[in-house]
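Workshop exercise sheet. Pairs work together: one partner reads the sequence aloud, the other fills in the structure field after running the prediction. Swap roles for the next sheet.
Pair: D.N. / O.F.
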Amino acid sequence: MTDQYIFPQIFGKWIFIEGFSNHEMFNAVLRKTNSSWIEILPTSHTETVLLNQGNLIDGKCLDSSANMTFSKNILQISQNNMTATGHFLLSCPDCLVMDFNSTMDEVHIRSLYIFGKSRTLPEAELKQFQKQAECLQYPQPAQYSYDGVTEFCAEKKESSHTVESQDVKDGSQ
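Structure field:
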């Protein structure tokens, strides 16, 4: 597949449905994740896209944006002290499957994620993804599975905020 063929298909907002990792550091984060979304947007540079994401982890929203380069089905992203290289795997029409190799502080981590345009995917598509994960020798079962109902972090300018219901204690503002 050429970049021109893949690019229009990856743009837009995606909901994180399920994730695998081969390292306990990533697995611990996946297990604490309540919900997550990504948004992939074009930029003025043909091989660069903007990756926005909102992660609800232990009740806290962690939002970030980063440029991601993309060439010949290879993704590259560097953020904080981590670099990741990944590629897209074939999947269902409304799915996005990304397989990443990440390096953080000389630790090498593999991860596999599936995203969908809606809160749920057909069971057959999830089973196919799980077979891909097993074939790629990821530890089973998935460390993250979206429950289909947990709310998402809104797109915010702040890099971190807490999600909780706020009651006005007094009438003054």
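Discussion prompt: Residues 1-5, 157-173 have pLDDT under 50 and may be disordered. What would you look at next?
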